[in-house]
């Protein structure tokens, strides 16, 4: 069973994008995140949607 919400660390491992860049993308709203307590969690499908869009539009990560 795949996880529904990913930690920032898991997103880094999954994408290879650096931690600072992940937090920057969250802050800008490019990657949607929810707060669970004081931690950010990223919805797996939203992350995949963002990555697909980045590839299509040639967004530099």
TrEMBL record:
Domain Helix-turn-helix: 5-53
Gene3D superfamilies from the UniProt entry: 3.90.105.50
Pfam family, one: HTH_17
InterPro entries in UniProt: DNA-bd_dom_put_sf, HTH_17, SinI_DNA-bd, Tn1545/Tn916_Xis
Xref: NCBIfam families: excise
Official protein name in the record: Excisionase family DNA binding protein
